[in-house]
Each structure stands twice: as structure tokens, then as C-alpha cells.
Amino acid sequence: MKEENKKVSKLFRKRWVVPSVYLLSAALILTGVLWFQNKTNDIVQPPVDEQTEQGTAVNEPESVPVQQAVEQIIMPVLDPNAVEIAKPFYDFHAPAEEQEAALVSYNDEYYPNKGVDIAMKNGESFDVTASLSGTVIKAEKDPIFGYVVHLQHDRGVVTVYQSLTDVQVKTGDTVKQGQVIAKAGTNEFNKEAGVHVHFEIRKDGQAVNPVAYFDQPLSALENKEQQTTEQQAEQQETNQNKTNEQEDDPSSTVPDASIGMART
Hints:
Elements: H1 2-12, H2 17-44, H3 50-53, E1 83-87, H4 96-101, E2 103-106, E3 109-112, E4 116-120, E5 127-129, E6 134-142, E7 146-152, E8 157-165, E9 174-175, E10 180-184, E11 197-203, E12 206-208, H5 224-248
Antiparallel strand pairs: 1-4, 2-3, 4-11, 5-10, 6-7, 6-9, 7-8, 8-10, 8-11, 11-12
């Protein structure tokens, strides 16, 4: 036992022994502290999901796509400045002179123009384009109206193209606004117009004046039904007043009601 104590005492007398012991002790303590911290982090920190690892915040709101621009109704031609309205839309509330100019003569009868007839100023043919983006629901040849194309749009709106030639679309096709769908031609219904395209806008089956809605969105047609109802009420009142006047004055004359009746 004494021999062992002497060896230990002799060992500690060497200069390198004590610093070595201190360094070894410090290394053990530091190792213990680091190990304890790692265990604590494993318990406290929540798991990191795949989205966070990629650098995206968990609660970051999804990006909202930019709303597409709303289309406005355009004239169905490439160059509006090169064409003119050969025959206007028949307005039941327009002056008699304007109504007469909007009548189409066919087989010795007169019919109100339910759209507008568009022609080149020089009388030549031209490309007919889609007034709005839509789906072709009819593309066929009619013995009276020539080749016809109907396009279906939102909000119960249909655009109609008649008196066509060289039709480039078929039923079921999706077309973009401004896309060429045919060329202007002739038809039997309105021979006097020569080479032209007959263009209509129908809202829920009722024809409206296209000129009144050019450069406007489809939403402009939403009040059409209310306006039509009011106009019909006004027309009925006017007709009733005329009837009363005729009864009071038998010599007075009333225009033939058959003039201007719409062709189905």
C-alpha cells in the first residue's frame, strides 16, 4: 500500500500530469453539457414538415390568380373602319322613317331586321370574325339565309352570323374573340344587301340592337329583360290609345299591323 502511494505522489510531481487531468475533466464536462442540450432540443422543437424545409411558410396564403380581362362585344370584322351598316336593327320605338329603313323585303312581304347587315364600302367580301369567345352550336347552310353560324356565350347570350361563305368552323368548336370564322357572302332573304354579313345578338332568345352593345361587356345585357318589359308595357299603352282614337274617329287610319311582324 505504501509503495502504491509513493508511486502516485511521484506521478503528481511531474508537471504535465495536473494539466492533463484538468483538461480531461473539462472535456468530460463539456461533452455532458452538449449531450444534455441535444436531448432537450429533440423534446422541445416541433417536427419540421416538408413545406417548411423548402423555405415556404406554413401559414402563407395561397397566391390568387390574376382575373382575366372581361371581353367586350366587338363588331364581327377585322377592320370596323372599312365597313358600314347597310341595314340597321328594327327598333319598334324608333321613328317611322327609321323603321322603314330597317325593313327587309322578301317575297313581297316586309320583315323587321333582327340584327344589322354589315358590308364593305366597296361592296367586296371580307373576313367575318367572332364578336365574342364562345362555342359553335350551329354551323350549316340554310336555303334562305345562306351559311349560318351560331355561337353560344355566357349569360344566355348567342351571337348569330348569316349570309356567310367559306365557313371555317363546325359545331362543337371553341373559338376566340376576333378569330376568323368565315367570309361575307350573299343570301336569298336580303338580296338587295349584296355581299354582307347579317349579325345578331340574342339575349335569352330575344334579339337586341347590336350597335347599342358594341364595346360593352355581356353584363350590359343583364337589364335587357327589364327594359323589354317596360317597352312592351309602353307599346301596349300606345296601341290602346291608337285604338281609342280610331273608335272616336272612324275616318282615321292605322298602319297595317302585319307590317314589321318578325319572321320565325
